[in-house]
Amino acid sequence: MEKMSRVTTALGGSTLTGRTMHCHLDAPANAISVCRDAAQVVVAGRSIFKIYAIEEEQFVEKLNLRVGRKPSLNLSCADVVWHQMDENLLATAATNGVVVTWNLGRPSRNKQDQLFTEHKRTVNKVCFHPTEAHVLLSGSQDGFMKCFDLRRKDSVSTFSGQSESVRDVQFSIRDYFTFASTFENGNVQLWDIRRPDRCERMFTAHNGPVFCCDWHPEDRGWLATGGRDKMVKVWDMTTHRAKEVHCVQTIASVARVKWRPECRHHLATCSMMVDHNIYVWDVRRPFVPAAMFEEHRDVTTGIAWRHPHDSSFLLSGSKDSTLCQHLFRDASQPVERANPEGLCYGLFGDLAFAAKESLVATESGRKPYTGDRRHPIFFKRKLDPAEPFSGLASSALSVFEMEPGSSSMSWFVDTAERYALAGRPLAELCDHNAKVARELGRNQVAQTWTMLRIIYCSPGLVSTTNLNHSVGKGSSCGLPLMNSFNLKDMAPGLGSETRLDRSKGDARSDTVLLDSSATLITNEDNEETEGSDVPADYLLGDVEGEDDELYLLDPEHAHSEEPEYVLPQEAFPLRHEIVDTPPGPEHLQDKADSPHVSGSEADTASLVPVDSSFSLISVSHALYDSRLPPDFFSALVCDMLRFYAEQGDVQMAVSVLIVLGERVRKDIDEQTQEHWYTSYIDLLQRFCLWNVSNQVVKLSTSRAISCLNQASTTLHVNCSHCKRPMSSRGWVCDRCHHCASMCAVCHHVVKGLFVWCQGCSHGGHLQHIMKWLEGSSHCPAGCGHLCEYS
């Protein structure tokens, strides 16, 4: 590592001199501790237990405490602590549950002094009393804490935290007999070493395990805790109840926390996993670290300030098998790389923009924001010149207001209250919601509901008379005719194959495949064409005459005396081979210009057989299917829902989801639906639309949403006579044996809906109270209170 700046600090009679440096260890470190004179550091781990001298330019190994021929689990350390009153006394917490003390003053190579084997599982933490030389405290994975007197062979007292494991224990600097302990269940307990039977105070500090704690060296009532919830919290323990005074949000689980000496609001943290850096936070500025050390390449396992009265040097050990000394002057400053601008939308559509004053140009037309037309959307605290961040916080805040009325959300409230989401057929729901949107001026939404009705609802059948009339008139809304075939112009090969073979087709219906893309037409009962909801008209027959005399008969203009044309069974073969049709003869062009042919018939062709007689088929049938299946539009509808959600109209997305149900829900992933539902429900509750919100929750099929209205629905009932909680689920109090909920009108027990007056607390059956208050405003119990039911 390259040489960096050097700092010399005078501390009484000693002087600290050093720079940022590191040394390589033989194995990963689990914990470190510094001796009283800040000249040596001990490093402990599963495979390492050494003491290093901290010199000006480097670390120098002084002593290896892992001696002996056979490896022992007593040397596998989870924690180590150096006594701050006796420089020869160390204690380690072994992974096999043994607490070991070490005496560096012993003349032999083996410095091991005492072994305490009372814990059954791994010991996570050991701690010496700050002023008592012979008192040692340990916390184990077995959930017990033990206090040892080093002058005895056994523990003095045992403390049970009633939890799975103890993660940290720390003696208080303020109170001689008090120590704090943290647990896996998120609790922090305060104990008096004189009373091992119960803790003095217990509170829940974190949402998850609490891994570490540290008492403040100056404000001795402050206790800092760090947990798996990625938070560092500072608690004031001087009050009757533990009060959270600061909270720092980190990016990973907090494994170690240490207050910085001589800096009242600074503390250092390291992570248990993911993040390898060490951060120094100012608790008054909890979102941006004051300093950051980035030397380690693996998780930092132990941190310690070199001297209790020097804030410049920080020591750390890591799983990357390195021991580092960090100089605070060389730390990176994240605040220097932070974005100095901020942008945020307000609830009413206002836009707030904060930036440095030097970046904001002075405008003569700008006026101060008064917030007269509604409640203020932000609050600005006056800066204290004595604060360390007062110079950095000199920024200008600009608020861009929406025009009055332009950001009104009345349409949202009206739409939510008037929309119909269930209880009617799909067509009626779509029509009703389209009408509501149209009345509110939301034409695009109204058109969307109309299109959904067309896609998912069956259209009505068109009458045959109207259909033929529209076709004969050549109307654009009518259905075009399919091509007519004249067998005269068929290819010779095809014509020879079209002779009817009666011996082969008696059992099959007479069918004609008109085109490779056309619909198959049946001739059994002269009914509708297959695959269509629209009736088809057929004109089938054998006639003799010229080609120009053939045209479609219009039912409205047909003469009654004309005979009905009937298709002989031998007119067409049962099935013929599909071949490429040769180009039409010239006389078809002449037919198109004939005055006897309508515009729709100009596109027809004739196929005449070889003999003089010929057959004609003219079918009034759509060239396309008039109604595609709804599944064909599923992708389009899903894109439409995502479009509305991305535009911010989550109300439309959720409403369509509920109305269409399984028709579209299966095509949208569950996580997206849940996100839309939660967003819409949150908006409804912001506008106090509780009934609509509950309806949306009930109609939702997502498990995460449908259970929302079942949370926090417990009703705690107290007896109206003895005022004590009802312990049973019945209507009779177990203590005073009185009925808890008596109707003030009928004097019977209320076993259903119960309504009561918030003024006098009397009530009864809902229907009875409503009927009573229709004729009288006085309480039916006779207390004289004027009750009101709304």
Automatic annotation (TrEMBL):
GO biological process, one term: cellular response to amino acid starvation
Superkingdom classification of source: Eukaryota
Gene Ontology CC: cytosol; GATOR2 complex; lysosomal membrane
EC number: 2.3.2.27
GO molecular function, one term: ubiquitin protein ligase activity
Main location: membrane
Entry's family note: Belongs to the WD repeat WDR24 family.
Assembly with partners or alone: Component of the GATOR2 subcomplex, composed of MIOS, SEC13, SEH1L, WDR24 and WDR59. The GATOR2 complex interacts with CASTOR1 and CASTOR2; the interaction is negatively regulated by arginine. The GATOR2 complex interacts with SESN1, SESN2 and SESN3; the interaction is negatively regulated by amino acids. SESN1, SESN2 and SESN3 convey leucine availability via direct interaction with SEH1L and WDR24.
Function comment: Catalytic component of the GATOR2 complex, a multiprotein complex that acts as an activator of the amino acid-sensing branch of the mTORC1 signaling pathway. The GATOR2 complex indirectly activates mTORC1 through the inhibition of the GATOR1 subcomplex. GATOR2 probably acts as an E3 ubiquitin-protein ligase toward GATOR1. In the presence of abundant amino acids, the GATOR2 complex mediates ubiquitination of the NPRL2 core component of the GATOR1 complex, leading to GATOR1 inactivation. In the absence of amino acids, GATOR2 is inhibited, activating the GATOR1 complex.
Name this protein carries in UniProt: GATOR2 complex protein WDR24
Organism of provenance: Lipotes vexillifer
Gene: WDR24
